[in-house]
Amino acid sequence: MTLQTETQKNKQAAVGDMAGKEVKNRQMLVILDFGSQYSELIARRIRETQVYSEVLSYRTTAEQLRKINPKGIILSGGPNSVYDEAAPHCDPEIWNLGIPVLGVCYGMQLMVKQLGGKVERAQRGEYGKASLFIDDPTDLLTNVENGTTMWMSHGDSCTVLPPGFEVLAHTENTPCAAIAHHEKKLYGVQFHPEVVHSIGGIALIRNFVYHICGCQPTWTTEAFVEEAIREIRAKVGDKRVLLALSGGVDSSTLAFLLHKAIGEQLTCMFIDQGFMRKNEPERLLKLFEEQFHIPVQYVNARERFLAAIAGVTDPEEKRRRIGHEFIRVFEEESKRLGPFDYLAQGTLYPDVIESADTNVDPQTGERVAVKIKSHHNVGGLPKDLRFKLIEPLRKLFKDEVRKVARSIGLPEEIVQRHPFPGPGLAIRILGEVTAERLEILRDADYIVRQEINRYGMYNQLWQAFAVLLPIRSVGVMGDQRTYAYPVVLRFVSSEDGMTADWARVPYELLETISTRIVNEVRGVNRVVYDITSKPPSTIEWE
Ligand code: XMP
To answer: Is the distance from CB of 1 to CB of 498 less than 8 angstroms?
Structure first.
């Protein structure tokens, strides 16, 4: 994920795909984002209750919301104090829409301030866990246990409630920890029900979603697949779509959905740059062609890519050349197989919330590709090769893609596949990449995967892979002195790849892997374990 700048955030399309379409009885909630790090998490928690939700800018107007017609609105937290000069405010007409609103932390303070109450700097801020004492166990707090733990993070507190509001719960330091205007269905909580540390948080969210907003649990995998197929057909018509298959869960799921929707109008292209893991290209082709009966245009570009980076040792230059070569092959092959009207991209919901730099065609209003997903490290496609984009996964979080992938029968090895960088093994061979070194790393990496699986550890690790160093050290095998490459094992745990820690795996596992690698992989006589976290290191070595 990229860090988002304030300008990007402000540029964020306020109402996404939904503007202009008036829909009755839409089963969805809108989260208005005031800059909280948890806005996305709120959206995920709502979706876990099987109700669709989207994050929109706090600038979304009441009029726009009226058109979207959500069943409920959640105002997120935010880093500001409501009294800051630059504090973000929402359209005050939102309070009069007749749509239930739940303000979380900053969202609650804003509600209180805008409706005539008072928010002040608390004598003591409250950070971390707090016990919630319930004064009114009805609607919002039904089934929330008295004294339950909720997670707090605030320096300001509400001291005077606006007319018509009452206190639902308090904590030791915060007299107004949960408030309500029952008649208008306006609610506020000073704590964060969405974070895992808030034990009663889920119950509270369910109360809001089901009882207060009256939502039905309609956001299911099956419903998504049906709707996606309908939308793809409506958008594509009789046009042709190109998809670059990478072997990951996103592009595989995309291929499946698109093929189901438009059959032969879809062309799946798989560019094999020669930097994938052992057997992966073969398995991918077999799976798609034999099991799913989806034809794949296989482009063997191994030699081209190897030639493109021959003699290159600088990591950035290596990435640049691989990216550049990818564009060239992509361009040639898409011309050969085309013409195509659409390019399918595996854009996910976090990319949509966070990236505002996507070009929009001024005539059609459609998003157009100026870049292929960054994992291909492609700076931009040439101007004469502009496709319209089709992004059927753009509503989904990663875990939702996995659910869909499973439901359509993709094998677990794809569903749960660890992240794999676009330039592949080429950035795990330090220094020059040669055919010989690729083979060594592929074999070592294969053993790593086999043993991690055998130990049942694959799903506990964010990534686990081997790196080949371009130096040699002395060893002894039999009575022979050896002078060969070391392999580094890089196993990490992480939530999102932004930060990571080295994984504390059992010594026996490391021992087995080490023994097997030096015995089975010619050219390697030493195995070391990387014990640095990120930061200061990165996960990949280049
Ligand atoms: P670093 O090495 O920056 O990696 O700590 C963070 C995460 O990103 C993956 N990674 C990439 N993924 N294209 C990708 O799609 C790339 O060029 C690329 N480089 C790094 C890396 O595997 C880790 O999960």
So the answer is: yes
Active site residues: 105, 192, 194
For 260, list phi and psi in degrees, rounded to 5: -65, -35
Tokens of 365: 């209003």
pTM here is 0.81
Indicate the SS3 state at residue 260: helix
Q: Is 540 in the pocket of ligand 1 (CB under 6 A)?
A: yes
424 lines ligand 1 (CB under 6 A): no
C-alpha distance from residue 257 to each of 111, 245, 285, 415 (Å):
42, 13, 17, 15
Tokens 């059959």 found at:
263
Here the tokens at position 377 are 């490290």
Ligand 1, from 534, 537, 539: best to mutate by most atoms within 8 Å of Cβ? Answer: 539
Q: What element of type H or E holds 514?
A: helix 507-520
Distances in whole angstroms, Cα of residue 182 to Cα of each of 9, 18, 133, 397, 505:
33, 29, 19, 33, 52
> What Cα–Cα distance (Å) separates residue 134 from each residue in 21, 141, 166, 173?
41, 8, 12, 14
SS (H, E, C) 333-361: HHHHHCCCCEEECCCCHHHHHHCCCCCEC
**Cis omega (within 30 of 0) on the bond before 315?**
no
Ligand 1 atom nearest to 494, measured from its CA:
24
User: 332 in helix, strand or coil?
Assistant: helix
Query: SS3 for 208?
Result: helix
> Which residue in this structure is represented by tokens 């676009």?
422
User: CA 208, 212, 215, 221: dihedral to nearest 10 degrees?
Assistant: 10
- pLDDT tens, 323-377? 999 999 999 999 999 899 999 999 998 888 764 344 444 455 554 444 333 344 3
- Ligand 1 centroid distance, CA of 538 (Å): 9
Pick out the chain residues at pLDDT < 70. 1-25, 354-385
Find out whether 392 and 232 touch, Cβ atoms under 8 Å.
yes
Supply the DSSP symbol for 195: S
